[in-house]
Amino acid sequence: MSLTPSVSSSVDLRRIIDPDTYFDNNLPPTNLQWAHDEVARFVKSQAPDQRIVLVTSGGTTVPLENNTVRFVDNFSAGTRGSSSAEQFLALGYAVIFLHREQSLQPFNRHYSHSTQGMLSYLQRATDGSLRIKPEWEDKMGRDLDAYQKYTAQDKLLMVSFTTLSDYLFLLREVSLLVAGLGPQVMFYLAAAVSDFFIPSHSMSEHKIQSAEGDLTLRMNQVPKFLGPLVKNWAPLCFIVSFKLETDPQLLGSKARHALKKYGHQVVIANMLNTRKWQVWLFTREEIEPATIQIDQSDLAAGHDIEQDLVKELARRHQKYIKEAQVSHA
Amino acid sequence: MSLTPSVSSSVDLRRIIDPDTYFDNNLPPTNLQWAHDEVARFVKSQAPDQRIVLVTSGGTTVPLENNTVRFVDNFSAGTRGSSSAEQFLALGYAVIFLHREQSLQPFNRHYSHSTQGMLSYLQRATDGSLRIKPEWEDKMGRDLDAYQKYTAQDKLLMVSFTTLSDYLFLLREVSLLVAGLGPQVMFYLAAAVSDFFIPSHSMSEHKIQSAEGDLTLRMNQVPKFLGPLVKNWAPLCFIVSFKLETDPQLLGSKARHALKKYGHQVVIANMLNTRKWQVWLFTREEIEPATIQIDQSDLAAGHDIEQDLVKELARRHQKYIKEAQVSHA
């Protein structure tokens, strides 16, 4: 028995399809029309100079079967995206939150993924009535107030996806709807998007049977959508993409390569194991990245790195808007 | 370019390792010792004739990388397992709930996977205090009371897993700890366990890079653990396994094949699309399966099929215990 590696990648670049072909060959999600109408309404309801950010958050799934029992998933609870959405709201942004269903959501994120579940926050009061435990009442009350305030002000719109295909259709739809607002729109692409997929037409119709030994999955590379996003869908917007790696040797070169290849504004680079207290902000103009980091003790005390990251991005976005006005004048 | 199917399975049966080899080649989960101690304590605290059920619930993941960014997941929110655990408790069972982290849990299940999140259940009262919304107070109160009652009576023990490997180590550990109680223990194996995995030693160390085109994943078949479970780990217990299919043509023959091959007591067969209102109960003794089904209108009104399924299994389990006592006498 030969010791071939179980994970291998071939070099057949002919199979990397272009983004348009992807949309021709895959079915749109059922909420696409709803999302179109809601985003159009949301954008229209904002003041003319309102800064808007599209935050993408959570991982995409890639089904292995048309009647889906199994799928490939990307690691992401949605921590970065949901925390960042809160920070953008606090800084006055209107936020379109394009997130994986069941991933963390702004304000709710502090409670929804507790291993104890919702009931652990409740107790019977002495009069027998059901109450929030006193130790949670202040924090939950503040989160509820914030959530209701931003919702009532129409500053937060939630749109959800599950599969890679859902995500890509929704990303294109939202991009085209906000593109006309130009520089005042930021894209904050924090979702963990699959790099590989199995095209719908060559997927197994039913649950893959296990009686016959090994399983070989041949997956195609997902076309890079950052290219058409930057060039065609939303060329005037301020676009921030993310690079997550586990090998530190690759991080800087991959971030710079992405900026050069796609020509967008910012790449946030981060390592899987340190991403909660250290990120690097790469731009085309600066030779060295800006480091943003917090103490692990601050993190433990409830200070998210997204507070610093989003503040810095908002500052750069403001500058970008001003420069666009000057060059337009 | 040849049109080879993207999902294919070879017939190299030599690579199906035996279960013992699996445990030799994979690392145990970090909670294994904790689980051992807790299950031993839990079992010891029960009355001598207490019926006990091990409910497994939720899907297992199979990492594609040692520094995990991507993994293959099995579809399962844990609905069947968490609902069944409640029914077993109501019928007087002590329940060990071996579940996927973040999957649905008994009593909490009605609230934890709401797309709106926890805050949607709360509101400010007229005096400004934080309250459960009146329309939820009764139901949540009943669920909290039930959860606290069973916990206080030491009738519900929660043990969690994430990966396939975690699950298999914990299943073996728990099985060996409860096996000595014999017929009074039921195994209710509702978890959706992966059929394929990538051995740790042949996994990619870092995030798989996507620059080189296609990705080919070669996965080994997971050894069938029902065999050693029935024969060696817990030979006297009442064992119920599940068969989920999407192709109706396969369901009956696969259920009967499993009973013949492993020699356990019951296979519950169900179809992905109808599993919430129809299941079939196969045994070795009966030629035709018993059909358990509910009206979809009952389901909508909050009647879970697990009420009927678990009641029927408890009845058969009772008979099994009696027969074992007779043959022992």
From TrEMBL, chains A, B:
Q: Name one GO biological process term.
A: coenzyme A biosynthetic process
Domain of life, per UniProt, equals Eukaryota
* Membrane-spanning ranges: none
Is Repeat given among the entry's keywords?
Answer: no
| Isomerase in keyword set | no
**Could you tell me the EC number(s) of this protein?**
6.3.2.51
Ordered alphabetically, the record's keywords are: Ligase
A molecular function annotated in GO for this UniProt entry is: ligase activity
Q: Which residues are in the DNA/pantothenate metabolism flavoprotein C-terminal domain?
A: 51-107, 186-275
Pfam families membership: DFP (PF04127)
Q: What SUPFAM superfamilies would the database entry show? A: CoaB-like (SSF102645)
The Swiss-Prot or TrEMBL record describes its family as follows: Belongs to the PPC synthetase family.
Q: What is this protein called?
A: Phosphopantothenate--cysteine ligase cab2
